[in-house]
């Protein structure tokens, strides 16, 4: 007879138990998709001794939603994104990604957390002399060893994923071209793919279309919106173009002087909201924005 300390063989679950386990896992995964991915509480950012730029911001972004952050120049939009990915230090408050506190991380823990936050920049931030593929693979730098990165030896699965994503956004044919041989729209597609190569839990985009012509910028917004849904990825986009915010995002957050003064759907984003956010400060794309607001609500 086997002693009580002896290890038993592989446990075989009866059929009904397996089914129950599978149903439980399915429910869990559905449940997880619904939970908050990013939770910001009472975020304050002060540069030096100046007045705070963010004054106690609360924002929760759930999985699979595309949120635009609008506000006049200086409202604190970039500061907010830069606090989330910790390019700058929040002065106080909490930033949680999937329940993990980001605001007090340092060193290795911070580097690992940053892998989970994809970032798309206004100026693309590509390395011009490198190829498109090399720029895209830079999104994997947080996952490979220094030696692998230095020798540019990326795992085959990374290369396959890079091709898949480049195909998806229409730049696979440029894989071996230098980044500086591409148009602005193509370069931003490289920026988006590089961010997605990180397998991020959230994507942040800081004025991703501001350097692009109107048609190309619409294409990039449309692309980011589709990708967010395909990949069930929450996306936060700082944007000046209110008309595009209304068309390509499901939720609009309006900042003014570091306070959140609007949080609602594009349908709720009417002339009054526009006036409250920008009134007396600046009128970005006023014609388009007002026209669109009237179109929807007039
Ligand atoms: N590194 C810094 N040091 C000091 N002040 C800063 C710094 N970065 C930003 N600020 C100030 O913080 C305020 C908010 O800037 P921020 O860039 O977040 O605004 P924004 O809403 O993104 O503006 P824009 O739409 O023009 O990019 C501004 O008054 C700006 O001058």
TrEMBL record:
Keywords: ATP-binding, Cell membrane, Membrane, Nucleotide-binding, Translocase, Transmembrane, Transmembrane helix, Transport. GO terms for molecular function: ATP binding. Its main location: membrane. It is a peripheral membrane protein. It is found in: Cell inner membrane. Gene3D superfamilies: P-loop containing nucleotide triphosphate hydrolases (3.40.50.300). PROSITE patterns: ABC_TRANSPORTER_1, ABC_TRANSPORTER_2. It holds the Pfam family ABC_tran. CDD domains: ABC_PhnC_transporter. The chain crosses the membrane at residues 20-40. Residues 38-282 form the ABC transporter domain. InterPro entries: AAA+_ATPase (IPR003593), ABC_transporter-like_ATP-bd (IPR003439), ABC_transporter-like_CS (IPR017871), ABC_transpr_PhnC (IPR012693), MetN_ABC_transporter-like (IPR050086), P-loop_NTPase (IPR027417). PANTHER family: AMINO ACID IMPORT ATP-BINDING PROTEIN, PHOSPHONATES IMPORT ATP-BINDING PROTEIN PHNC. This is Phosphonates import ATP-binding protein PhnC. The lineage of its organism: Bacteria, Pseudomonadati, Pseudomonadota, Gammaproteobacteria, Oceanospirillales.
């Amino acid at each position: 007879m086997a002693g009580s300390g002896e290890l038993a063989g592989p446990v075989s679950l009866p059929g009904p138990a397996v089914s129950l386990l599978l149903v439980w896992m399915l429910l869990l995964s559905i449940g997880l998709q619904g939970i908050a991915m990013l939770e910001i509480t009472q975020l304050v950012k002060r540069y030096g001794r100046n007045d705070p730029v963010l004054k106690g911001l609360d924002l929760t972004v759930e999985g699979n939603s595309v949120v635009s952050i609008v506000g006049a120049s200086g409202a604190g939009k970039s500061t907010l994104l830069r606090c989330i990915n910790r390019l700058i230090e929040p002065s106080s408050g909490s930033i949680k990604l999937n329940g993990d506190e980001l605001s007090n991380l340092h060193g290795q823990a911070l580097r690992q957390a940053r892998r989970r936050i994809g970032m798309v920049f206004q100026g693309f931030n590509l390395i011009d002399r490198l190829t498109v593929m090399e720029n895209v693979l830079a999104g994997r730098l947080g996952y490979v060893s220094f030696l692998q990165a230095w020798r540019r030896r990326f795992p085959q699965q990374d290369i396959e994923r890079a091709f898949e994503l480049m195909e998806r956004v229409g730049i696979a044919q440029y894989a071996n071209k230098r980044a500086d041989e591409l148009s602005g729209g193509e370069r931003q597609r490289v920026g988006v793919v590089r961010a997605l190569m990180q397998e991020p839990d959230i994507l942040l985009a800081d004025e991703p279309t501001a350097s692009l012509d109107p048609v190309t910028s619409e294409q990039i917004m449309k692309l980011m919106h589709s990708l967010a849904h395909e990949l069930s990825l929450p996306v936060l986009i700082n944007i000046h173009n209110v008309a595009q915010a209304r068309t390509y995002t499901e939720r609009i957050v309006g900042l003014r002087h570091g306070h959140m003064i609007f949080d609602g759907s594009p349908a709720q984003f009417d002339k009054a909201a526009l006036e409250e956010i920008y009134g007396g400060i600046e009128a970005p794309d006023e014609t388009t924005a007002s026209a669109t607001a009237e179109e929807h609500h007039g």
